[in-house]
Design a protein that fits this description.
The complex is a heterodimer.
Chain A (H helix, E strand, L loop, with lengths): L3 E6 L11 E7 L2 E8 L7 H5 L7 H6 L6 H15 L6 H29 L3 H22 L8 E2 L2 E2 L5 H26 L2 H7 L7 H6 L4 H6 L14 H4 L11 H24 L15 E10 L2 E10 L4 E7 L1 H12 L8 H7 L4 H5 L1
Chain B lengths: L1 H12 L21 E4 L9 H5 L5 E4 L5 E4 L9 H5 L5 E4 L6
Antiparallel strand pairs in B: 1-4, 2-3
Classes of the chains: A alpha+beta, B alpha+beta.
């Protein structure tokens, strides 16, 4: 047996922007075991919610994640709306889809850039982030901020889109479509990219199921699970089918996310074109009393919110299970057997968001 | 490789995607929430905005002398206070980091 070495990977690492440490047990260059250590960015947001009133807490929920922030507030608000039996106006539901899918596009583009950066493909990194800037600009034009939109509130949304803004969104979708047509075939068809991704970090369908993988990680291993298919917000009317691949390696996860970029474009277009007329929010009266579980599909997978109110303005408990937490166990199953040089690529292929995980 | 040729040529001949900030500036996007402004002449110092603020960034006093202050390092620019203001004296506008 070769001599074993333990290498700490992270929490500060050039290719990994997230503060997670993986203690890698190596035999020569081969990883035989990985142990994760988290706890570097815990902010106590779940506790903070108990001190804010339930409407202010939508902003706290939004700040759980810096990438998929809007979906967090959607998850939170949908939960409170269920407890309080509020019916959200259809226009608000469509607007939630528009912003959610814009968030998914910018999150996947950010991820694509980081993945390319992890194996040294700087051109794709810059190309993806250049396209992402268009998404951020349109979010600023429609919601007033680039990432922390702050537009989702209990009972609906806080901003409406004018005709001109809808036209702007559709124009940006067309521009992005052109960008993707140029960028994505160049990434997926490239010889060197395939060398780095195909067959690396394999996760079988059984493993994905048993370890509870969610989002693109599960979908790339042949589990067609997409919570949007259940039709929350306006997804039911717009129609979503889970994008699926079966190979379960890093390349399949890249394929799934690239395909989801196109899918999200279609959803933004569908929601923007089919925006129903009417109010964007209902008046909220009373306090939440009761408990519920609310689930939303984020770029990284399914987020679960548990909310319990006791008839006062503060919630008694909020518990969040974020997608990266669910995907950490599958990550540990992918790593053994790989080369040390592939660890950054495999880690990034689950699109880790540790700030989410620790809340 | 062939699929990349188009972008390679285009990148050779086009301007950089970035701007030479602060020499070259972008028009501020209308409706952006960059900075919280107040029209103090309209303010009645009721303090509703301060009570609404999720991060306690606002401090409003009526007596002895009326004052309204915002801590810019606490403010999360959510715009929630705007909805509480009965006099519509709060507004949000663009913020230029280079001043």
């Amino acid at each position: 047996m070769a001599k074993r070495t333990i290498i700490p990977f992270g929490p500060q690492h050039p290719v990994l922007p997230e503060p997670i440490q993986l203690r890698l047990v190596l035999e020569d260059e081969r990883v035989v075991e990985a142990t994760p250590a988290i706890g570097y960015v815990h902010r106590g947001l779940e506790k903070l919610v108990e001190q804010k009133d339930f409407q202010q807490s939508a902003f706290v929920a939004e700040r759980i994640c810096g990438i998929c922030s809007f979906m967090h507030s959607v998850g939170y608000c949908q939960g409170i709306e269920t407890i309080m039996n509020l019916t959200v106006p259809p226009r608000a539901k469509y607007l939630r889809v528009v912003w959610s899918e814009l968030h998914r596009i910018h999150s996947h583009l950010l991820w694509l850039g980081l993945l390319a950066d992890s194996f040294g493909f700087e051109n794709v990194f810059m190309g993806a982030w250049r396209s992402r800037e268009k998404v951020l600009d349109i979010m600023e034009a429609t919601a007033g901020a680039r990432i922390m939109l702050g537009t989702c509130c209990v009972g609906g949304v806080r901003r409406d889109l004018s005709e001109a803004q809808v036209a702007d969104v559709l124009r940006v979708c067309d521009e992005l479509q052109k960008d993707f047509d140029e960028l994505i075939p160049a990434v997926l068809g490239d010889y060197s990219v395939k060398q780095r991704l195909v067959g690396v970090g394999k996760l079988t369908q059984e493993q994905a199921h048993d370890l509870g993988a969610v989002g693109p990680v599960a979908r790339a291993s042949g589990l067609a699970r997409d919570f949007r298919e259940t039709g929350y917000a306006a997804y039911g009317e717009l129609g979503v089918r889970a994008v699926m691949e079966v190979a379960g390696d890093c390349y399949a996860r890249t394929q799934v996310r690239c395909e989801e970029l196109y899918q999200s474009l279609e959803l933004v277009r569908g929601a923007a074109r089919g925006l129903p007329a009417g109010d964007i929010a209902v008046t909220v009266k009373g306090q939440p009393d009761g408990e519920t579980v609310s689930r939303v599909e984020q770029p990284r997978g399914e987020v679960i919110y548990y909310l319990r109110g006791n008839g006062t303005k503060n919630l008694q408990r909020m518990r969040v299970r974020t997608p990266t937490f669910a995907n950490l166990a599958p990550l540990l199953a992918m790593l053994p057997g790989c080369q040390l040089a592939d660890v950054p690529v495999i880690t990034l292929s689950i699109d880790p968001c540790i700030s989410c995980t620790e809340r | 490789m062939a699929s990349m040729l188009k972008s390679i040529f285009r990148n050779l001949f086009r301007k950089p995607a970035t701007r030479l900030y602060p020499a070259e500036r972008r028009e501020p996007i209308p409706g952006t929430r960059g900075k919280l402004n107040i029209d103090i002449s309209k303010c009645i110092f009721c303090g509703l905005c301060a009570r609404r603020c999720p991060v306690n960034a606002l401090a409003v006093t009526k007596k002895p002398s009326p004052s309204w202050t915002v801590d810019p390092y606490r403010c999360i620019l959510c715009g929630y206070c705007l909805e509480a203001c009965p006099k519509d004296c709060l507004s949000m506008g663009p913020y230029d980091a280079a001043g």
